[in-house]
From TrEMBL:
GO-annotated molecular function: 2 iron, 2 sulfur cluster binding; 4 iron, 4 sulfur cluster binding; iron ion binding
Chief localization: mitochondrion
Quaternary state and interactors: Monomer and homohexamer; the apo-NFU1 is a monomer, while the holo-NFU1 is a hexamer composed of a trimer of dimer that is probably linked by some 4Fe-4S cluster. Interacts with HIRA and EPM2A/laforin. Interacts with BOLA3. Interacts with HSPA9.
UniProt gene name: NFU1
Keyword Flavoprotein: no
A Pfam family reported for this protein in Swiss-Prot or TrEMBL: Nfu_N
Cited function: Iron-sulfur cluster scaffold protein which can assemble [4Fe-4S] clusters and deliver them to target proteins.
Name under which the protein is recorded: NFU1 iron-sulfur cluster scaffold homolog, mitochondrial
Keyword tags: Iron, Iron-sulfur, Metal-binding, Mitochondrion, Transit peptide
Subcellular location per the Swiss-Prot or TrEMBL entry: Mitochondrion
Lineage, uppermost ranks: Eukaryota, Metazoa, Chordata, Craniata, Vertebrata
């Protein structure tokens, strides 16, 4: 540990913008395989009373989707909700999402309460090439002090409504308390879209959108849990967006 500490101090003394490291260099075990330490140079004395160093420690965590990576900036992203930006046009209300879409190879962006999930266009894009630009964009944005969301966007959560009957209320409660927290751990989310003829319609977001195991998540995870607690639920159906932005039901029955 002493040798590692000396190495870290030496690297920090170079005054470079980034110092990349993995926790395994310090003989530690973690679920976050990669970390990024962003170090900003001190502001001029005329700008602040004392010279300061602005730092951000950004962790990355793999998701079940190999094309999605979860970035954890160590600070709040959204207060208590999630937001999915499947296209650059959908990012009209978020300066941070717009900046991330400017990085070549980024397909979609998803915000959680304390994380950002970025999905790349395809497996042909190497994360080692994309990550430096994503790190820099996240760090520079939070250093700017700008709000993550600047315009009111429609809510897409599972909040209860006065029109909900008892079964729908139970479905939403299970989604909020038992299912969504688990899905968000994997860098995604699941949004309630409707309940008709015993079928619960759900929309997957973030890393879950194009994940190869999304159907398994729906059938073996979400559907089984809903059916166990709510006998009225006969199945789960995925709702997706086509290229024109029109929602349609996926073949998940």
């Amino acid at each position: 540990m002493a040798a590692a500490a000396r190495w870290l101090r030496a690297a920090a003394g170079l005054g470079g913008r980034f110092c990349r490291m993995t926790l395994k260099d310090f003989n530690l075990t973690t679920k976050q395989p990669l970390c990024q330490f962003a170090r900003r140079k001190p502001f001029p004395p005329s700008t602040v009373a004392h010279n300061t160093v602005r730092c951000m420690f950004i962790q990355t965590q793999d998701t079940p989707n190999p094309n999605s990576l979860k970035f954890i900036p160590g600070r709040q992203v959204l207060e208590s909700r999630t937001m999915d930006f499947s296209t650059p046009a959908a990012a009209f209300c978020s300066p941070l999402a717009r900046q991330l879409f400017r990085i070549e190879g980024v397909k979609s962006v998803f915000f959680g309460p304390d994380f950002i999930t970025v999905t790349k266009v395809s497996e042909d894009w190497d994360w080692n090439l994309l990550k430096p630009d994503i790190y820099a964009t996240i760090m520079d944005f939070f250093a700017s002090g700008l709000p993550v969301i600047t315009e009111e966007a429609p809510r897409t959560d599972t909040a209860a409504s006065e029109d909900d009957d008892e079964v729908v209320l139970m479905i939403k409660e299970l989604l909020d308390t038992r299912i969504r927290p688990t899905v968000q751990e994997d860098g995604g989310d699941v949004i309630y879209k409707g309940f008709e003829d015993g079928i619960v319609q759900l929309k997957l977001q973030g890393s879950c959108t194009s994940c190869p195991s999304s159907i398994i998540t729906l059938k073996n995870g979400i559907q089984n849990m809903l059916q166990f607690y709510i006998p009225e639920v006969e199945g789960v159906e995925q709702v997706v967006d086509d290229e024109d932005g029109v929602e349609k039901e996926a073949n998940s029955t």
